[in-house]
Write a structure and sequence with these properties.
mainly alpha; 4 helices
Amino acid sequence: MDELKTLQSLGLVLPSPAYILGAVVFGLVGLVAYRRGRKTSTAALTWTGVALMLYPYAVPQTWLLWTVGAALCAWLYTRWN
């Protein structure tokens, strides 16, 4: 148990279940967008898919993860067809 307290004092904490769920959901949506963008040669879909797959690694707060993910999904929805 001392190891956990030591890690927490260093600022390393486990993400919440909502964060993990958001990272998985947006990662899967990003994968679908990336594959569709590569298949149809649409750069907007391809790069939005890459962004959806990678941004959870750079965002530490759960609310920010969901906000940015929703914005990227809205952008993806407008560019899908």
